[in-house]
Specification:
242 residues, mainly alpha, two-stranded antiparallel ribbon, 60% helix
Length: 242
């Protein structure tokens, strides 16, 4: 399993799992089945109408759809073709941002080398040898394919199980309720990443998260270690908001 750590604008490192060659091959096959099946049905419908001969159908309908299927879906569907969506994958920039229109087109243009002219050998070789599973098109466009995390069907209350009757709230409840659930999840990520990857960047992210908490809670004089402070604030947030 290949992964890549990317720092967010809040300097919180996020770990992405890159899509393996096997998953990408399955997604590609799904796309081909959907695409070719749809084109066969469309061609049959056009042929039965007698409006356009088969040669024109291929040049004016089938070929453009086949060629532009991938970039069109990736641009309009958040970096996902139907096959990628089925395998829970998407294209992102190597810095974690959303690719631009130009990035998608540049990435797509190298499919000729990666897949079509080489029957996939170039792409397979590049992905297998890349530390973040990039094909040539991904390398030149600074993009990569990642596995999407599970849809966020949980909330902060499910992250930490607490018994409110056995604990008292240390901080002001009104101040605690000024935080949002997304903020608390971001603070939790900062704490988790510091524990998992204790380094200069994760320490800075932890300290920034604690500083925001202290400012909102009027707890600038709090002498508790920042990691313990974040854990405590998250617990108390759950207690007062559930």
């Amino acid at each position: 399993m290949n992964t890549m750590n990317i720092n967010t604008v809040q300097n919180v490192p996020i770990e992405y799992e890159t899509a393996s060659l096997r998953l990408r091959c399955i997604a590609y096959l799904i796309d081909q089945v959907i695409l070719l099946g749809s084109l066969l049905i469309l061609s049959a419908l056009i042929a039965s109408s007698g409006a356009v001969n088969q040669g024109y159908t291929f040049l004016l309908v089938n070929l453009p759809i086949y060629l532009f299927y991938t970039p069109a879906f990736e641009i309009l569907n958040n970096g996902q073709t139907l096959g990628k969506a089925a395998m829970r994958m998407r294209v992102i920039k190597t810095d974690g941002t959303i690719p631009t229109f130009t990035d998608y087109i540049l990435r797509w243009s190298f499919r000729l080398i990666d897949i079509i002219f080489s029957t996939g050998i170039v792409a397979a070789t590049a992905v297998s040898s890349s530390p973040i599973n990039q094909r040539v098109g991904g390398y030149v466009s600074n993009t990569m394919v990642i596995k999407k995390t599970a849809d966020k069907t949980y909330n902060i209350h499910e992250v930490i199980a607490l018994n409110r009757n056995k604990e008292e709230v240390t901080f002001d409840e009104t101040a605690l309720q000024t935080f949002t659930e997304d903020q608390m999840l971001l603070f939790k990520d900062a704490a988790d990443h510091f524990e998992k990857f204790p380094n200069k960047n994760t320490r800075k992210a932890l300290d920034e998260a604690a500083s925001i908490m202290k400012s909102k809670l009027n707890a600038a004089n709090q002498e508790m270690h920042n990691l313990n402070l974040i854990r405590l604030v998250i617990k108390e947030y759950v207690m007062v908001t559930r």
